[in-house]
Design goal:
Helix content is about 70%, strand content about 0%. It contains 3 helices and no strands. The protein is flat and about 60 Å long.
Length: about 90
Amino acid sequence: MVITDSPVVPLFAAFGSIAMLLFVEFAGSMRDRLVEQAALVVTGAVLISLGTLVSRGVWLCTLATAVVSFLVLFSGVVSSAWRVPPPPCS
């Protein structure tokens, strides 16, 4: 079965699968994990689409990479800070 003629698409799929298996840990019930995996797939598709749209110009690509990298790193810091429970009062 041929899905695509492009040799790049299977490479993206391989790296995405490895990243999802090795670098992401989903916790909770089966439904929670499924929702989180779906959110990861949608987020990845949006970021790949955005990268494709801005790939025409070097400056636009550089600016978009800086902005998206900052937002992704910042969201990781903020989301981990929200999940940490406050210390108990003594």
